[in-house]
Amino acid sequence: MSTSSQDAQLQLDALVKDGVQKRDVFADPATRIRALEGNHRLHHKWEVFDARKKRSVIANTAVARELASWCWSLAAPLQQGEQAPGGRMNAA
């Protein structure tokens, strides 16, 4: 007979085996989808810079700027007490 903690670990292991990152397991589905889309977009942007033979420091800086803007777009509504795209609100 297994305990509930063993069952939870088995479920976590199954999700990780299916390709879900451990950090994403506890995120709600809308947040997980938005994060995945953002990762793909930023990776594609870096690949385009690489294909254009841009120096890696230039590509990394451009991608980092876009990542910072994306993070800001997530945080700004929360700081103003508005509903975020994932459906959560700021508790403060």
Topology:
Elements: H1 4-17, H2 29-51, H3 56-79
Helix pairs in contact: 2-3
Which of globular, elongated, flat, extended, rod-shaped describes the shape? flat
Mean pLDDT: 76
Radius of gyration: 18 Å
Total helices: the number is: 3
The description of the largest β-sheet is: none
Please report the total strand number as a whole number: 0
The percent range for helix content is 55-70%
**Distance separating the two termini:** 43 Å
Structural class: mainly alpha
H-E string: HHH
Q: What portion of the residues fall into strands of 2 or more residues?
A: under 5%
Q: Would you identify the regions where 5 or more consecutive residues have pLDDT less than 50?
A: none
Explain what you see.
- The chain is mostly helical and 92 residues long.
- The protein is built from 3 helices and no strands.
- Helix 2 packs antiparallel against helix 3 (56-79).
- It is flat and about 55 Å long.
- The termini are far apart.
Q: Main attributes?
A:
flat; mainly alpha; 92 residues; 3 helices
Task: Describe the structure concisely.
The chain has 92 residues and is an all-alpha fold.
